[in-house]
Structures are given as C-alpha cells and as structure tokens.
Specification:
It is a single chain. The protein is α+β, with helices and mostly antiparallel strands. The protein contains two helices and two strands. The longest helix has 13 residues, at 50-62.
C-alpha cells in the first residue's frame, strides 16, 4: 500500500465544451507513482459528501495491485451496487 493525495489543481469546463481555453497544470511524479484521472461519477453519491467518495477511491488506489487493469477493477468494484447517476470514467497511469 501507499499514501495518496488529491492535488489542488485549477478547475475548468468539462473537456469538449466549447472553444474556451482550459487551465493546465504540471505535476512532478516520482518513479513508480500512480496517476489516477477520473470523472466525478466515481466519487459522488446522492446524500453523501464527496470527501467520502474521495477517501473510498484513495484507499482502493493505495492498496496497489499487480497491474493497472487489476487496480482499475478494484476501484470500480468499490462503487455501490446501484447504478451510478452519472458517468464513471477512470484513467490510470504509472510513472516510469
């Protein structure tokens, strides 16, 4: 397992909306670190603070797995049994 953090990054409109500029940010990731990009559907639930969902995903990500595919499956497996009200997208990458 390992530690996790959610960096404070600039917010913008959803990707693909209009022709407006989108804020960018650069992060330096140590070798072997994990980068997880996801939509809010992965962490938001009705009648629940988003922090609860962020902690749930953070714990699943920090457990580690033999492959990114296995890790993604584990994270998606933490979703409630009821279908999410929003889309769920998860992109994982490991630093070299």
């Amino acid at each position: 397992g390992g530690d996790y953090s959610f960096p404070d990054l600039p917010h913008g409109l959803p990707l693909g909306v209009g022709l407006l500029p989108f804020p960018t940010a650069e992060l330096e990731l140590p070798a072997g670190s994990l980068l997880a990009l996801f939509t809010d559907g992965l962490v938001e639930e009705r009648d629940q603070d988003i922090e609860v969902g962020l902690r749930r995903v953070g714990r699943a990500l920090s457990r580690g797995a033999s492959s990114l595919e296995d890790l993604g499956t584990a994270v998606i497996g933490t979703l409630p049994a009821t279908p999410p009200p929003d889309d769920v997208t998860l992109l994982l990458a490991r630093g070299l």
